Automatic annotation (TrEMBL):
PROSITE patterns to which the protein is assigned, alphabetical: FAD_PCMH
SUPFAM superfamilies registered for this protein in UniProt: FAD-binding/transporter-associated domain-like, FAD-linked oxidases, C-terminal domain
Required cofactor names: FAD
Record's protein name: FAD-binding protein
Keyword hit for Cytoplasm: no
UniProt keyword DNA repair present: no
Gene Ontology terms for molecular function: FAD binding; oxidoreductase activity
Pfam family, one: FAD_binding_4
Domain FAD-binding PCMH-type: 51-229
Keyword terms, alphabetized: FAD, Flavoprotein, Oxidoreductase
InterPro entries recorded: FAD-bd_oxidored_4_C (IPR004113), FAD-bd_PCMH (IPR016166), FAD-bd_PCMH-like_sf (IPR036318), FAD-bd_PCMH_sub2 (IPR016169), FAD-linked_Oxase-like_C (IPR016164), FAD-linked_OxidoTrans_Type4 (IPR051914), Oxid_FAD_bind_N (IPR006094), Vanillyl_alc_oxidase_C-sub2 (IPR016171)
Length: 498
């Protein structure tokens, strides 16, 4: 695994592997425990395939009681647990550990209830993102967040990473569309937060859980908001002679008070790859392509499209096509949805990054990324959620050429540092995982990181859930609770201490 450093293996746990497997099979009988190396091979990585590690054992529970008993057993025995959804994570969030139980939640795959009057659906975490829409679309509803991997990614994984999608600009990320969770703590305790109501009293634990990357609890049920499909949806396909001009147009559209349902951007390499892959009719003589979708009442959509076209023209657009049918609108999106696999035509391997910047910084960042491409000697294709500044540069490399993976990692790290430098953040929707873990110090100070780890300690004092992810330096919970004593005097002596 290149130079990635993970927690040391617990040799005492590995020495007990046979007994652990036997105990887990008593909790999850039948085919619920996978222990032979050949069958476990499919779990050795998630979507970030540059990093691989065989798990100690894989468990596939089917009931909440089984999840609770597995976690309680592992807690009592001091065994690490790595939760996993569909394995589409692009940050290494589901990377196994050699001395840990890999807990796959993909047998939790049922839609439990659809409540149309309250506009919610209750689903298990293994239901795919698109599966929720499929369950409600007959009545004219849908689930708004739509990652490009929505056909495969699970809603439980979406909760773990706070996933977004092409329509998150207007309708929000996962955190804006989840109303309630059932989850199991590392001790085995089953907890419910939120529900079908729109707001909860007390601390916002739901907001804490969404995006917690499997470090705090294992989700066993999700209550999501479903929306009624808008009356009309139309898209504009706009070509520009440079990425900088396209980026400036994005900022201008938002500044004009127009909030599209989605606003995506692709640069020339990505356009060519997507067009060759799906034949969406994309122009090949432009350097950048914007897809801008407006939805709502037909009259409003028609007016907004005219305004968007005018703004684009003032920023040098060379081509603008407005969809005239639902089939044409879907064809505009077909290439964007297939862009990631399509880029596989350009290079044997690519490294998909994820960072977020202020929209106004788009022209600067795109220019700087071009300069970094020259510096590192690697090509980059850009496909991203332009409306909310969520970048997805695809760094092209060949893993069979010695040193290229390391150069790709260095290139990606420079892109993320650039995002932070211009006022952005390290991730928009892929999470930190192991990919960005060692860059957390570029965005957070030591005290910030320790405070975040104190939250982890409140949920998982033994640090058994998904260790080695998110935090660049692990601390025991007792260490985080220590006081700094100067000159023999405790700070704030008036505060009661226990």
């Amino acid at each position: 695994m290149t130079g990635l450093v993970m927690p040391d293996l617990d040799r005492a746990v590995l020495a007990r592997r046979d007994g652990i497997v036997h105990a887990l099979r008593a909790i999850v009988p039948g085919e619920g425990v996978v222990a032979d190396p050949t069958s476990m091979r499919v779990y050795e990585s998630d979507g970030l395939t540059a990093y691989r590690q065989m798990p100690m054992v894989v468990v596939l529970p089917e009931t909440v009681d089984q999840v609770s008993r597995v976690l309680a057993y592992c807690h009592a025995e001091g065994i690490k647990v790595v939760p996993r959804g569909a394995g589409t994570s692009l940050s290494g969030g589901a990377l196994p550990l050699g001395d840990a139980v890999l807990l796959s939640m993909m047998k939790f795959n049922r839609v439990l209830d659809v409540d149309f009057p309250n506009r919610v659906a209750v689903v298990q975490p293994g239901v795919t993102n698109l599966g929720i829409t499929r369950a409600v679309e007959e009545r004219g509803f849908y689930y708004a967040p739509d990652p490009s991997s929505q056909i495969a990614c699970s809603i439980g994984g979406n909760v773990a990473e706070n996933s977004g999608g092409v329509h998150s600009l207007k309708y929000g990320l996962t955190t804006n569309n989840v109303l309630g969770l059932e989850m199991v703590l590392m001790t085995g305790e089953v907890v419910r937060i939120g529900g079908r109501h729109l707001d909860s009293e007390g601390y916002d634990l739901l907001g804490l859980m969404v995006g917690s990357e499997g470090l705090l609890a294992v989700v066993t049920e999700v209550t999501v908001r479903i929306l009624q499909k808008p009356e009309t949806a139309r898209a504009a396909l706009i070509g520009f002679p440079s990425s900088e001009q396209a980026g400036a147009a994005v900022a201008a559209i938002i500044a004009a008070g127009i909030i599209p349902g989605g606003m995506e951007m692709m640069d020339k390499p990505a356009i060519a790859a997507a067009e060759a892959f799906v034949h969406a009719g994309y122009p090949l003589d432009v350097e950048a392509l914007l897809i801008v979708e407006l939805d709502g009442p037909a009259v409003e959509v028609a007016d907004l499209l005219v305004r968007v076209e005018a703004i684009a023209n003032t920023h040098g657009a060379t081509e603008c096509r407005l969809s005239t049918s639902e089939a044409e609108r879907l064809s505009f999106w077909a290439g964007r949805k297939a862009a990631f696999p399509a880029v596989g035509r350009l290079s044997p391997d690519y490294y998909c990054m994820d960072g977020t910047i202020p929209r106004a910084a788009l022209p600067l960042v795109l220019r700087r990324m071009g300069e970094l491409s020259q510096t590192h000697g690697l090509r980059v294709a850009n496909v991203f959620h332009a409306g909310d500044g969520n970048l997805h540069p695809l760094i092209l490399y060949d893993a069979n050429i010695p040193g290229e993976l390391e150069r790709a990692e260095a290139f990606g790290a420079d892109i993320l540092r650039l995002c932070v430098e211009v006022g952005g953040v390290l991730t928009g929707e892929h999470g930190v995982g192991v990919e960005k873990r060692d860059l957390m110090g570029t965005m957070f100070g030591e005290d910030d990181l320790k405070q975040q780890q104190r939250v982890k300690c409140a949920f998982d004092e033994k640090q058994l859930l998904n260790p080695g992810k998110v935090f660049p330096e692990l601390h025991r919970c007792a260490e985080l609770g220590r006081l700094h004593v100067h000159g023999g005097a405790l700070p704030h002596p008036d505060i009661p201490r226990f």
